[in-house]
Write a structure and sequence with these properties.
mainly alpha, 2 domains, 3-stranded parallel β-sheet, 3 strands
Length: 159
Amino acid sequence: MPRGVDVLVNNAELVTVGPAIGESVHGFRSVIDVNLHGSYWAAQACGRVMQPGSSIVNISSILGITNTGMPQAAYSASKAAIAGVTRDLAQQWGSRKGIRVNAIAPGFFTDAISWKYPEATSNNWKDACSSDEPANQKSWRVRWCGLHPRRAVTSPDRR
């Protein structure tokens, strides 16, 4: 007899980049709807049928913890909220239902979404990650590198 759902990986992502002063209500809500609401409702649906020992992994972002100077208010807000929801669900379901709820917060990497932003994916990463620019003058790209333990930006196909 099937047990239901054993693992949920909540990897919802919609990204906008631009100054907050120019962001539309629709654009902001769209990001929150996909990234936060989608993850929450999927977790709720799975939490109803999961058995003890099941696991939910929510994908947050380093931008939910800090910023790099790249203007992404809606995305950052949604990923910070994912961290909060994760803490709450872990507390609610961990001891009572035996469901593990965790989040990971990856940093920047080049993928199909990031390629939409040429300034984020040019071949200048190597130079940016070894930059000696003064801290108050560092570009967002240099600040990203500082957030990575290996001081490198990677891609999904790189091992």
